[in-house]
């Protein structure tokens, strides 16, 4: 079977699963419902598995069909990304950009910049996750990560760029200072209440005071 015929069968299968009927899928694909039905039948025969439970009202994916559907959606998405890169003759970035950033900093600082980037380059599609855990970037398929902290070791295959420095301050409300007094030295902080940063792994980030 030619590769184009294989892809045509997959495209018809995904469209049918999404639409819930041969007729609706045929309208999306600009084909007849009979052509879509025959394509699905040939695909099931080639795979040796029934992909749909057929009823008079609606089609429903079988267990095998659900697994095959997830794979097909991923494959078609990757093909679309590859095609968008190849057909683009401009220097503008295209395709999916997987970004991971710290939860609070990411929403306040990174997200507005990504919105500007997406507006400037419509063919770029950022997929953003906000998390305070230090994940395996390669394993999670992350293209760009924003991190706050010291120079932790990175794999040799990954590049890094310093974006700036942060300044940490100890703050308290006026009401708290009226009740407990204002500390005059770093040693006095030990006797005061504090809000500590809790990480995703359950650990607590202690206060760090530079000499």
Topology diagram in text:
Blueprint: H1 3-19, H2 22-29, H3 33-47, E1 52-54, E2 59-61, H4 63-87, E3 95-101, H5 103-120, E4 124-130, E5 144-145, H6 174-180, E6 197-198, E7 204-205
Parallel strand pairs: 3-4, 3-5
Antiparallel strand pairs: 1-2, 6-7
Helix pairs in contact: 1-2, 1-3, 1-4, 2-3
Describe this structure in words.
By secondary structure, the chain is an alpha/beta fold. Helix content is 43%, strand content 12%. It is built from six helices and seven strands. Strands 4-3-5 form a three-stranded parallel beta sheet. Strands 1-2 form a two-stranded antiparallel sheet. Helix 1 crosses helix 2. The protein is elongated and about 85 Å long. It starts with a helix and ends in a 6-residue tail after the last strand.
Number of separate strands: 7
Low-pLDDT segments, ≥5 res: none
Residue share in helix: 40-55%
How far the N terminus sits from the C terminus, by CA atoms, comes to 73 Å
Note the beta-strand portion.
5-15%
Largest sheet: 3 strands, parallel
Gyration radius (Cα, Å) is 27 Å
Structural class: alpha/beta
- Work out the helix count: 6
Listing every helix as H and every strand as E from the N terminus to the C terminus, the arrangement reads HHHEEHEHEEHEE
Query: What general form does the structure show?
Result: elongated
The average pLDDT is 82
Major sheet strand order: 4-3-5
């Amino acid at each position: 079977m030619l590769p184009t015929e294989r892809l045509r069968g997959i495209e018809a299968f995904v469209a049918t699963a999404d639409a819930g009927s041969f007729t609706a899928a045929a309208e999306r694909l600009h084909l007849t419902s009979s052509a879509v039905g025959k394509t699905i039948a040939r695909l099931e025969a080639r795979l040796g598995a029934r992909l749909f439970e057929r009823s008079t009202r609606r089609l429903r994916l079988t267990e095998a069909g659900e697994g095959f559907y997830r794979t097909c959606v991923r494959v078609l998405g990757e093909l679309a990304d590859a095609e968008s890169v190849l057909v683009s003759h401009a220097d503008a970035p295209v395709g999916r950009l997987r970004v991971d950033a710290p939860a609070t900093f990411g929403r306040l600082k990174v997200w507005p910049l990504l919105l500007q980037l997406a507006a400037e380059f419509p063919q770029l599609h950022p997929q953003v996750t906000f998390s305070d855990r230090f994940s395996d970037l390669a394993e999670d398929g992350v293209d760009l990560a924003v991190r706050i902290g010291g120079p932790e070791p990175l794999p040799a295959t990954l590049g890094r760029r310093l974006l700036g420095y942060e300044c940490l301050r100890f703050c308290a409300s006026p009401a708290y200072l009226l009740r407990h007094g204002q500390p005059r030295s770093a040693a006095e902080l030990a006797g005061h209440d504090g809000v500590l940063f809790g990480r995703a792994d359950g650990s607590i980030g202690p206060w760090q005071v530079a000499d």
